[in-house]
Amino acid sequence: MALRFAAARCASRSPIARALAWRAIRRAANDNRQLIPANDIDERTTAALRLFAGHGLGSAGIAAGHARQAHREGDTQTARWWLAICFSLDRNMAGELERQLAEPVVLATE
Fold first, then answer.
1. What is the percent of the chain with per-residue pLDDT over 70, rounded to a whole number?
2. Range of 60's domain?
3. How many structural domains are present in the chain?
4. Is residue 20 situated within a structural domain?
5. First to last CA, the chain
């Protein structure tokens, strides 16, 4: 009895793979019909992206820390700046931080 060898087909060139790829290509669409020009990105977004590029997923916590520090020093403008950057990166964390900063600090006196 003779055995015959039949090499496997390349998966990328199979008729099924081509049909599935064609459907995926036809469905692909750009959601952003109007692209935002680079000069329209505001300062806060640029700062948030730079912070994220440097610190990764922990960047929202770092921004929150800067906001807390500025708030302790009485610099409300800088605290708002860092809070806005934190909001760009993590809305939940920024909302919690905003509630914390809005509460008056009560010092226990003994």
1. 65
2. 42-103
3. 1
4. no
5. 100
8 Å CB contact between 97 and 67: yes
How far is it, in rounded angstroms, from Cα 20 to Cα 50? 39
On whether residue 24 sits in a domain, the answer given is no
What CA–CA distance (Å, rounded) separates 70 from 78?
6
- Name which residue leads in pLDDT, 110 or 16: 16
Tell me, yes or no, whether 22 lies in a domain: no
pLDDT in tens, 14-43: 777 766 665 555 555 555 555 556 566 788
Residue 99, SS3?
Answer: helix
| Pairwise pLDDT comparison (25 vs 92), residue with the higher score | 92
φ and ψ at 106, to 5 degrees? Answer: -105, 120
Q: Answer yes or no: are the C-beta atoms of 66 and 55 closer than 8 Å.
A: no
